[in-house]
Design brief:
Number of strands: 15
Strand order of the largest sheet: 3-4-14-9-10-13
Number of helices: 18
Structural class: alpha/beta
CATH class of one domain: Alpha Beta
Radius of gyration: 20 Å
Largest sheet: 6 strands, mixed
Shape: globular
CATH topology of one domain: Rossmann fold
CATH architecture of one domain: 3-Layer(aba) Sandwich
Distance between the termini: 27 Å
Strand content: 5-15%
Helix content: 40-55%
Length: about 475
Amino acid sequence: MKYISTRGSAPALDFEGVTLAGLASDGGLYVPEEWPQFSEHEIAAMAGLSYVELAVKVMTPFVEGSLTAEELRDLCTRAYGRFSHAAVTPLVQLDQQQWILELFHGPTLAFKDVALQLLGRLFEHFLAKSEDHLTIVGATSGDTGSAAIDAVAGRERVDIFMLHPKGRVSDVQRRQMTTVRAPNVHNLAIEGSFDDAQAMVKRMFGDPEMASSKGGKFRISAVNSINWARLMAQVVYYFAAALQLGAPRRKVAFSVPTGNFGDVFAGYVAAQMGLPIERLIVATNVNDILHRALTTGDYSAGSVTPTAAPSMDIQVSSNFERLLFDLNGRDGTALAEQMRGFEANKAMQLTNSQREGAARLFSSARVDQAAMSQAMSWANAQCGYVLDPHTAIGFQAARDAGIDAATPVVTLATAYPAKFRDAVERATGVRPPLPARVGDLFERTEAFEELPGEYDAVAEYVSKFATPSA
């Protein structure tokens, strides 16, 4: 399998290459040269497989030439062996139509674990062959940071520098990052928003003094969903849920709380592979750039409004570029020009073909704070189920989507509710406890650096503590 950049001018790479590279050298994001296809018969034959075996089936076409099925199976077995539920991503029914896909049974209690536990092992596997050193630079709006740090803490040949917006993540999210005391882990609290942090990360990939791909000192890679391997792993749980609900004979709809568009784009990939998805509902909070783009074609970034769902407090959704590329006839030159305009002006208008193509599978909803709290209260009172704020936004969008009653609607539950215990308690009166495996979180010592929201300060810090590439 070869991978190409959404902006058309970076060299094509194999799976190992894109995993270690993260962002393409032309500033684009890597996607497969073509989407693998499964027949209805092949999908039906996946029913009843364990999560590990399903993951091997779904991901094997993407890793061909870089991993054998046996190597992939071993990596998945070790990655998902750390989850607290035997099903890895279990389904829970709330009413006749609405289902919850619990993606929070990993070690950091968030959906990011599903991909990042595997990604950490992929890094280690590929680096062992080359004896090179990797410098991971990432930005987090809350959950990516802790999941990525857990996945690579203490691993050889890897340093990780994780940027989070100071004061804009929950206390649990912050502590899950800052209490990890491995020598290869560096937490940076920066002034500004997640979008500011993400812009610094992207800039570092193109910095000729930093990135080895540009002649710099460090082999820089990404754990954010700009890294294709992370998205690939997320495709699997769409198959897992749909198969349990009757696929391929029966279509299933999914509602996905999203900020950076990675989790819901994984659903788009599943659909391109042949999974019968009725609809993908993009659920946003008041930071609604994706909702505006999908309903009116207006993809313009405003200022970020802090909310009780901080992982969605984003105005620049990096993975949206992957969808626009696919909907634009995979014309990298045209998309590069379109994205340059957006980066210069923080605004662009989707083309008619992009809007019409998206509308065939996607719809969207904007859920404000009041509606989010109502969804949390309803689920607790009527179903005895506690939702975190992000999942509540997806659940409210699912209930309002008008999907035919015969079609099951699955909301992706992205975080364990105790990660946002203050918001949950305000909405439901219930203060969810942390699971026993992380119960001493508030007794651990924190360690992080506070930096101004300036690229030069971050680059200087990384240069001081990172190990140069071989």
